[in-house]
Amino acid sequence: MALEWIFRKEQPTKDPYGAPGTGKSSMISVLTIVALLGGWWLVTELQLVRPLFVPSPSLVFSKFLKIACYDHYTQQLLVYIGARTEVVAECEGFSENPLHQHILASLYRVFSSFFLAVVTAIPIGIAMGVNRIARGIFDPPIEFYRPIPPLAYLPLTIIWFGIGDFSKVFLIYLACFAPLAISARAGVRSSSIEQIHAAYSMGASRTQVLWHVVLKAALPEILTGMRIAIAFGWTTLVAAEMVAAKAGLGVMVLNAARFLATDIVFLGIVVIGLIAFFFDVLMRQLERMLVPWKGKI
Amino acid sequence: MSAILTLQDVSMIFSAPAGGGSITALQGVSLDFEPEEFVVALGASGCGKTTLLNVMAGFLSPTSGTIMLHEQPISGPGRDRGVVFQKHALFPWLNVLENTAFGLKLQGIGMRERIAIAEENLSLVGLSEFGNHPIYQLSGGMQQRVGLARALTTNPEILLMDEPLGALDAFTRENMQELVLKVWQRTKKTIFFITHSVEEALFMATRLIVMSPRPGRITHEYRLAFSRRYFDLGDARRIKSDPDFIKIREEVLSIIYGGGIEE
């Protein structure tokens, strides 16, 4: 049986007394995804749940086609990749914007915030790691605001900075800031005392030790912090777009929910999830390129 | 001959972090390092060997006493004293050649010269083929050889080796002993070498200092010539099984363990 074959393949019998939990799990993950999608399809196909609560995959897909197309050419492209003409007969977009505008608006917000956080939080985190005064200054505010949910201080950012893009970027920026600063601070401790001593005994100055040893050794942890931060950025996106955003994936989901357009809510969630997943894969690739020694020494 | 490095009555007292009390890691240690000497420090754990090395390297400043390099008191670590550590302490973000050339880069020496000097030192430890390899792909013995090449690249006056072979397996260790001796013969460096192994100490040293704990101090000193004999014979096992060697090995062992097992 196919199922048996898959599971047998994933369980090599070579190490019965090894550490528990080793071995590949990717095949099983694929099965889980297939089962989830299949369950979704089955539940809607058998009409066990009303489409208002769980829209069928085909409904979500046709909605995707409707709001994804924005002119004649994309319409043709969508027809070409398998959309039926009648489905794409009307290019309606959503909230006056086609899907790609929503995606771009959100990408812009998340990445400008992330970029600002990277250029500020990493230096501050490093300073906290190597300097007791910097640690004394920045430790209380960061540790205080870090566990507060962004929704709690969202009203404050609106009162302070208005309802424009700045307050949205600021909210996501705060969400990215703490994990970046904390990982940079911890990363500074990654170099062993032997490595530092070795550099000094080869004639390094304090600045050279910082630059050539401490910062290089901190790199793996800083990159992990960047991965966590970008994920935090995406989780904060919907909260950030709650007030007065014209375009954005978060605002798309919120508006759709207001009209009980569950298919668009589903679509928005899937798109956010896919984009976040894609960037996580990208970050891991970056990690493999920049810090190939990670975990090997 | 004038001494390269001189320790005069060096003491190191660590105050215990809490509850008062203090630990005398070194008490009244005086030592002279003559050019081309191979001085090995031997002793049980906690006898202050590593503290002694850290003081000589300048990582610690002694509680009292002076350390002079060519009659100048030392202040902190410097490239006139190369250090090889037990754990290799290499930089995994650099390849073998870049690790070896690290000290030269710090001095601002140009790329071409840097590579030439580093390659020369890598060939000295038998790693000229491995310049482009990443550190984390090397075996423990090879990593230690890079550590040795790196310490030599800045051309130090004295080489301080802190149990450099301690983490290696027995076979690699014996090979490395011979390699270190050959490097010593070729470079004519003064070496201070710490070990736990009596056999290793006797085989390599021209002068052996035996240390004892609480307080850490030098109790015995031997002048030895087994390494010289190795250069004549070229057979390490034959030297280590020589009756003279065994006799002195047992003598040193009885010094170290003589007082029974201390609490």
List the helices and strands and how they pair.
The complex is a heterodimer of chains A (297) and B (263).
Chain A: H1 2-9, H2 26-45, H3 57-68, H4 72-80, H5 99-130, H6 132-145, H7 150-161, H8 165-187, H9 193-201, H10 206-240, H11 249-258, H12 262-290
Chain B: E1 5-15, E2 22-33, E3 38-42, H1 49-57, E4 64-69, E5 72-73, E6 81-84, H2 96-100, H3 102-106, H4 111-124, H5 140-153, E7 158-162, H6 170-187, E8 190-195, H7 198-204, E9 207-212, E10 217-223, H8 226-233, H9 236-240, H10 243-257
Parallel strand pairs in B: 3-8, 3-9, 6-7, 7-8
Antiparallel strand pairs in B: 1-2, 1-4, 4-5, 9-10
Helix pairs in contact in B: 4-5, 7-10
Please describe what this structure looks like.
The complex is a heterodimer of chains A (297) and B (263). Chain A is an all-alpha fold and 297 residues long. Among the domains of chain A are: 57-89, no CATH class; 111-245 and 269-290, Orthogonal Bundle (MetI-like fold), CATH 1.10.3720. Chain A has twelve helices and no strands. In chain A, helix 5 runs parallel beside helix 8 and helix 9 packs across helix 10. The two termini of chain A are 43 Å apart. The model of chain A has no long low-confidence stretch (mean pLDDT 86). The N and C termini of chain B lie far apart (43 Å). In chain B, a hairpin with a 6-residue loop joins strand 1 (5-15) and strand 2 (22-33). The relative contact order of chain B is 0.17. Chain A binds chain B through residues 192, 194-195, 197-204, 208, 212-213, 216-217, 219, 291-293, 296-297, and chain B through 57-59, 76-79, 81-83, 85-93, 102-103, 105-107, 134-136, 147, 150-151, 154, 160.
